User: Which sequence fits this backbone?
């Protein structure tokens, strides 16, 4: 599948403009003197990238939160090839700036593009990534640009070279774990081992100088409308979610294949001749099935490295809470009090190189705790490897109104397929909460109240119903799904 268009953010994506921030925010464009502008240069290879895209008949555009006057001054200074469209604050106004997708949608309309899934948006900020998800385009963080960490995870972190090489085969730009989930195995043609580099706080970093964790995929949460829709179309997210509903869930074989491959190949990828001394996992809670321990055991049988695979390097206290049921600000406190180094390994890890595997991370607090514990043992080097990082629109995270301790997640009724909001504490052994509420689909065209899905048991049909049927004044409006 060929790319139809590549859209770029402007500031700190095409050019470093930190020195212009004050001028841009004040709108003092008269201060953009010839002398000041002479120091503004495009990032290396961006001109080559844009020329290559144009030569392949791929449309190019810029979508920025800056004003048109500012953007035109900067673009003229950069002397880049002419863009097919430029969308700025001037066109979308305050309500339409990123993370609102209005600017990207306007650019797609200007370019007469009707397949946003064939479009890449390149930006250096978390608002660029969120806007991309809302607009249905592919979010990419550029490896050549700003070194400021990004909290939201994109589809990939790409160099200009890789982007030029892959623009005729868009399906190749996919993170390794996501590719495995699509194929349901680890054996398929692949050009590169794509991953997203993360720092110790699980932020995306375009460079490797603060690399702490290698992320191999995304997990779309079910806590917001947009991520729930993406979840239902995403094989890796669907696979990961299975373990939440099946106490006997067994991870697919490709999880072990990925871990074995990483243990064998990652050291060489970073120029090291020596492999990991130890490969381990974040353990399961004591009342849970040892899923990752099984993945580790299977990976040990597949690995060609000399690494020692240890499943009990870390241990959880009895009664440790599941972090996914807790608000973000409580996760660090919980993990620091519940995850510890197994006493039998204390004093035996000095000078060792250790790879730590986890399945899904959100805030990164679990791996961060693991790194901290290993540092106290004077390990030589530790690196995290996660199957996926959660894509979660934090603005839509909701606390359960009943228990006030867990967050709400969007769930699906197994018998009729209807989505609903349910407390994430439903399966919590220590603090169970069964609160639910209907998932709002749209506004009623007659009374403007919420419409939700209902199931007619007699006919087996799902339909939309206005919630005004039991309110005053009553509204009985219904629609077919």
Assistant:
């Amino acid at each position: 599948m060929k790319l139809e268009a590549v859209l770029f953010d402007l500031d700190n994506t095409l050019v470093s403009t930190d020195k212009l921030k004050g001028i841009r925010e004040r709108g003092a464009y008269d201060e953009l003197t010839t002398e000041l502008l002479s120091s503004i240069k495009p990032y290396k290879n961006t001109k080559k990238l844009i020329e290559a895209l144009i030569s392949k008949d791929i449309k190019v555009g810029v979508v920025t939160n800056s004003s048109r006057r500012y953007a035109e001054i900067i673009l003229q200074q950069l002397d880049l090839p002419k863009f097919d469209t430029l969308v700025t604050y001037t066109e979308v106004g305050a309500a339409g700036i990123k993370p609102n997708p209005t600017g990207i949608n306007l650019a797609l309309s200007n370019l007469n593009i009707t397949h946003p899934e064939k479009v890449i948006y390149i930006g250096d900020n978390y608002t660029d990534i969120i806007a991309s998800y809302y607009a249905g385009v592919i979010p990419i963080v550029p490896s050549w640009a700003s070194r400021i960490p990004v909290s939201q995870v994109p589809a990939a972190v790409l160099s200009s070279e890789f982007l030029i090489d892959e623009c005729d085969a868009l399906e190749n730009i996919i993170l390794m774990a996501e590719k495995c989930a699509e194929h349901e195995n680890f054996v398929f043609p692949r050009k590169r081992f794509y991953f997203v580099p993360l720092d110790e706080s699980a932020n995306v970093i375009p460079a490797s100088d603060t690399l702490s964790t290698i992320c191999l995929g995304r997990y779309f949460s079910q806590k917001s409308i947009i991520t729930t829709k993406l979840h239902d179309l995403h094989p890796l997210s669907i696979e990961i979610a299975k373990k939440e509903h099946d106490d006997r869930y067994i991870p697919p074989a490709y999880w072990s294949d990925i871990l074995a491959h990483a243990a064998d190949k990652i050291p060489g990828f970073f120029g090291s001749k020596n492999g990991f001394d130890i490969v381990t996992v974040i353990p399961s809670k004591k009342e849970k099935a040892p899923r990752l321990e099984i993945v580790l055991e299977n990976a040990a049988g597949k690995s060609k490295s000399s690494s020692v695979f240890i499943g009990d390097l870390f241990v959880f206290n009895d009664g440790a809470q599941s972090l996914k049921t807790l608000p973000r600000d409580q996760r660090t406190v919980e993990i620091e009090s519940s995850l510890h180094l197994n006493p039998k390994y204390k004093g035996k890890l000095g000078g060792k190189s250790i790879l730590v595997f986890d399945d899904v991370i959100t805030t990164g607090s679990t791996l961060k705790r693991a790194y901290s514990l290993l540092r106290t043992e004077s390990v030589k080097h530790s690196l995290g490897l996660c199957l996926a990082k959660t894509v979660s629109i934090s603005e839509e995270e909701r606390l359960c109104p009943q228990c006030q301790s867990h967050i709400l997640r969007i769930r699906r009724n197994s018998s009729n397929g209807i989505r609903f909001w349910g407390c994430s504490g439903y399966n919590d052994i220590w603090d169970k909460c069964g609160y639910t509420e209907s998932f709002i689909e749209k506004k009623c065209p007659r009374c403007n109240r919420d419409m939700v899905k209902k199931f007619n048991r007699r006919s087996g049909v799902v339909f939309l119903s206005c919630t005004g049927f039991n309110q005053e004044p009553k509204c009985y409006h219904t629609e077919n799904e």
Remarks:
- The radius of gyration is 24 Å.
- The CA atoms of residues 202 and 364 lie 5 Å apart.
- The chain is about 30% helix and 20% strand.
- The chain has a mean pLDDT of 91.
